[in-house]
Design a protein that fits this description.
104 residues; mainly alpha
């Protein structure tokens, strides 16, 4: 459950005896630390998934058969998607036309 920043600052001030300005600085520093940790976590997960898919690809037998080639291409597509080479890009185009309102 999330808390309002003001409540967090009030708790810091009362519990640890720091003034509000310092509590805001601590909160900002903590937030930056959380962001960095989550970035590292995502990079570790990407590395794990990439390693698993490369292992599947290299150990795949029958790559020269139609079914094997299909599986191999599917694995390579997933690897490319994780690396950011392929994306599910959807382009939308909206055309606006003017509507003429006639009042009687």
């Amino acid at each position: 459950m999330g808390y309002i920043t003001r409540d967090i600052i009030a708790q810091c001030s009362s519990k640890w005896g720091v003034d509000e300005r310092m509590a805001y600085k601590y909160l900002k520093a903590a937030y930056k630390e959380f962001v960095e940790l989550s970035k590292q976590d995502i990079q570790e997960k990407k590395a794990t998934h990439l390693a698993a898919r490369w292992k599947l690809y290299t150990e795949l037998e029958g790559k020269k058969t139609p079914a094997g080639a299909h599986v191999a291409l599917s694995i390579l597509d997933k690897i490319a998607a994780i690396e950011g080479v392929l994306t599910n890009k959807v382009e939308h185009e909206v055309k606006v036309t003017k509507i003429k309102v006639i009042r009687k």
